[in-house]
Amino acid sequence: MIVQTAMPAASASLAPDLPVIEVEGLAKHFDMHHLGQRLDAFSGIGFRIMPGQFLLLTGHNGAGKSTLLRTLYRSYLPQAGHVWLNTAEGRIDLARAADVDVALLRRREIGFVTQFLNARPRVPAEDLVAEPLRLAGRPAAEALAVARAALAEFGVKRELWAAYPSTFSGGEQQKVNLARALILPQRLLLLDEPTASLDAGARAALVRRLAALKAQGVAMIGVFHHPGDVAGLIDAELNLDNKETSNVAK
Ligand SMILES: Nc1ncnc2c1ncn2[C@@H]1O[C@H](COP(=O)(O)OP(=O)(O)OP(=O)(O)O)[C@@H](O)[C@H]1O
């Protein structure tokens, strides 16, 4: 059973025929000054994703998959191209947006899910998970109840809910991370190998949660070590080895 812990999707306010994201001619390289070299991570990337669509990124090790996700999240600035995002405030080019706008968009419109938890000293797991809801204005008691349901959904044992995640196992930390990252649906979700060290139960819970978000119109771009985990959700694949996008038959 999917525990309905989420607020309505941010994309509810967007016209369904507008793409969530349109990427044009995106290029990123790294200058390795100490070596006097330049490393091209990717160039000439273009695609568009509609509400509720799931794009799988594939390619060999070092093809640029994680770098592309980080560039879409604006952790990296691209050297060329556009990342048009249709938001509640209108169409914004993330490749050129001011840092302050990027910070706001990350709070309201774009989620980034990795396998790594940013555990903070003396912050219990349940508070860490509830925080995005509290910041979005949900009453504290309600946010806590939703956070506990999410922790249960991902299989974090009850004894750990009020404990500090810095002492948790790798898999337990990852489960707390997923519960937090997915508690507040955003218009666009970037997923960087979120299933890496999860047990079977948590992998299944994640897939159920992603399916529910997709049904609410959340667009997703993801890298998965085992794409079979999310096979039923994938609409298209972008292979960074040849930069070709192909639709996936259902
Ligand atoms: N901060 C950085 N500085 C310099 N080079 C970097 C940086 N980040 C990534 N790279 C390089 O960019 C290339 C793409 O890396 P990236 O991590 O995006 O690949 P990937 O497709 O995600 O690989 P994998 O499948 O192994 O996770 C690699 O050659 C990597 O060494």
UniProtKB/TrEMBL annotation:
GO terms for cellular component: plasma membrane. One of its GO terms (molecular function) is ATP hydrolysis activity. Residues 21-250 form the ABC transporter domain. InterPro entries: AAA+_ATPase, ABC_transporter-like_ATP-bd, ABC_transporter-like_CS, ABC_transpr_LolD-like, P-loop_NTPase. It holds the Pfam family ABC_tran. SMART domains: AAA. Keywords: ATP-binding, Nucleotide-binding. This is ATP-binding cassette domain-containing protein.
